Amino acid sequence: MTFGKIRREPVPVNSNFNSATDPSDADLVRAMARGNREALGTLYDRYAGLMLAAAGRILRHPQRAEDLVHDVLMEAWRKADSYRRDRGSVRTWLLVRLRSRALDRLRSEQRARVDSVPSPPRGHDQDGAGDPARNVERTRVRSAVAALPSRQREVLELAYFAGLSSREIAVELGIPVGTVKSRTAAGLGKLRVALAQRAAGGRA
Question: pTM for this structure?
Answer without folding.
Answer: 0.57
